[in-house]
Amino acid sequence: MSPASKHTDLNGLPNCITIGGQKCGTTSLHYYMRAHPEISVSRIKETKFFCDPGNWHKGLEWYVRLFPKNAKVRIESSPCYTNYPTELDVPQRIHDIIPEARFIYVVRDPIDRAISHYIHEFANSVEHRPIEVALSDLDNNPYIQRSLYFMQLEQFFKFFDESRFFFVYHKDLLLKRIETLRSVFHFLDVRNDVWSTEFNIIRHPSIQKRRNTATGMAIQRLFGDKIFSKLHGYQRHWFKKVFYTLVSRPIIRPTLSRDLRRWLCQVFSSDVKRLEESSGRSFSHWLQV
Predict the structure, then answer these.
(1) DSSP three-state, residue 41
(2) DSSP code of 248?
(3) Is 169:110 a contact under the CB 8 Å cutoff?
(4) Of 150, 182, 255, 276, which residue has the fewest beta carbons closer than 10 angstroms?
């Protein structure tokens, strides 16, 4: 059932949604968009509004209040929108409420994305298995499902024309940032000659991820996520060194065996080919053993 209300002012709805992919640079892109004078973003970066469970139950009036109304373009960014089949009915919900929506989809090498996803879960103590075990599990495996980009897009193509989707490539966002942002601004029909110091920042890189120790998990439970995150971000060198040693340890980016990488290339091969056909770009370099 739609949470729409006849009393809700729909003029405040977003007209563009960044739908993922997770661990592909969506957070950095969200803040790059916020720096543009003609673009506003949701007050919560990941509203998760169209996910159920998520914030769907809060209703449309809650969602509309997250967006300033005086911007030409209004954007929200929720990578959970491309988490099919774990998240069902997201495209239909979006179409029911914002049928004219446009979409930005950030993609990267699917194996690299899966590794970063694993590091994210491992750092949060959600994942405890070795990476070889976690990635080779075919039973509703989110590491694989969220790297099947075209499969995720197919769910949206049932409701929206392909012309409404703009692809951003993770590597381009890192190495050709200005050119890439200008192409995004062109898609959104806003000025593309904008510059901000925000464009120099890369947010949430996997290399900075750390995994909590037993002491760290106990402190986090005691003080809560918000205070723990502030402590973790404290920048005074002596405090950071002592605190990090006590509550967390660095995560060394894992490497995959040749056999697992070869198997993953086979798993992703068909989906990558279909993404190439849809986007008009070659990704053959993704699937190299």
Answers:
(1) strand
(2) E
(3) no
(4) 255
d(CA 31, CA 123): 23
Tell me if 99 sits within 8 A of 17, measured CB to CB.
Answer: no
Name the residue with higher pLDDT: 276 or 238: 276
- How far apart CA 75 and CA 68 sit, in angstroms, is 10
**195-223 average pLDDT score:** 75
Range name among 74-88, 120-134, 231-245 with the lowest pLDDT average? 231-245
The pair of three-digit structure tokens given for residue 26, joined into one six-digit string: 């969506």
d(CA 45, CA 18) in angstroms, rounded, equals: 10
What phi and psi, each to the nearest 5 degrees, are found at residue 103? -135, 145
The Cα–Cα gap between 83 and 146 comes to: 6
Give residues with Cβ within 8 angstroms of 32, minimum separation 6.
181, 196, 198, 199
Contact 24, 113 (CB under 8 A): yes
Q: Is the pLDDT of residue 7 over 50?
A: no
- Which burial class, exposed, middle or buried, applies to 211 when counting CB atoms under 10 A from its CB (0-12, 13-18, 19+)? middle
Measure the CA–CA gap between 115 and 134, rounded to whole angstroms: 10
Q: Is 232 helix (H, G, I), strand (E, B) or coil?
A: helix
Q: Residue 39 pLDDT more than 90?
A: yes
Q: How far is CA 287 from the centre of its chain?
A: 22
Average confidence score pLDDT of the chain: 88
Q: Please report the pLDDT score of residue 6 as a whole number.
A: 44
Q: In what order do the strands lie in the sheet with 102-107?
A: 39-41, 73-77, 16-20, 102-107, 165-169
pTM, rounded to two decimals = 0.85
Q: For residues 165 and 152, what is the distance between their CA atoms, to the nearest angstrom?
A: 13
Token pair in block for residue 54: 């998520």
Q: What is the pLDDT of residue 233?
A: 60
Contacts of 52 (CB under 8 A, 6+ apart): 87, 88, 89, 93
pLDDT over 70, % of the chain: 84
Give the type of residue at 267: V
